[in-house]
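Lab notebook page, bench 4
Experiment: in silico fold of construct C2
Operator: M.H.
Input chain length: 87 residues
Purpose: comparison with the prior construct
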Amino acid sequence: MSHLQLLSDLPNGTHATVTGLVSGATAVQSATAQRLGELGFIPGEPVQMLRRGPGGREPLAVRVGDTQFALRLVEAQCIQVRAVAAP
């Protein structure tokens, strides 16, 4: 479980480390990636996919560091991570 993935692809409960931000999704501007970085989604930061909304959709509940966020799918697709074993 050490290859790079997008946060949006992680199953519920998965722990990971942020490796970078990408703004490749068509609906995402670089300002969104910058905002995510300002919120704490920075390389090296621990992150966990907590759960998805109804039907496995939005919002995505995630924890970065000690803070929980609800993200849209398009935002989670901007966060590149490397899955790690649970602490």
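Observations: The chain has two helices and six strands. Residues 21 and 37 are 8 Å apart (CA to CA).
Next step: discuss at group meeting.
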